[in-house]
Amino acid sequence: MSATTLTSTPVIDALMAAISCLSREEQVTLVEQVQGKLMEEDFPQWQMDIVEEREKLWQAGLAEPVPLEQGLGQVRERLRARGIMVE
């Protein structure tokens, strides 16, 4: 979400009214579908393919996740080695 204030619109109000009529399971399914749609718009398929492949490797026990700060540190080191200034 952005830092802007969320405002209600007639469409949002109508959607919220419809959502309130759904079962909990249907609401969860709807959220998952909306998230999937947003992911499709934000990330090209080739990036999603990489994420899915890495998830499969992790689930198979063939890869271990790297903590975010450690991963960012590695990226910063690589950029510095190439002469790219990073904070």
| Structure annotation, total helices | 4
Q: Give helix % range.
A: 55-70%
The SS-based structural class is mainly alpha
SSE pattern: HHHH
Q: Could you give a short account of the major beta sheet?
A: none
How far apart lie the N and C ends? 25 Å
Characterize the overall form: elongated
Which whole number gives the mean pLDDT? 86
- The total beta strand count reads 0
The domain tally reads 2
Q: Please tell me how large the radius of gyration is.
A: 20 Å
- In percent terms, what proportion of residues is strand? under 5%
- Taking pLDDT < 50 over at least 5 consecutive residues as the criterion, the unreliable ranges are none
Account of the protein in words:
It is a single chain. The chain has 87 residues and is mainly α. It has two domains: 1-42, no CATH class; 45-87, no CATH class. The chain has four helices and no strands. It has helices at residues 10-20, 24-42, 45-59, 68-81. It is elongated and about 55 Å long. The two termini are 25 Å apart.
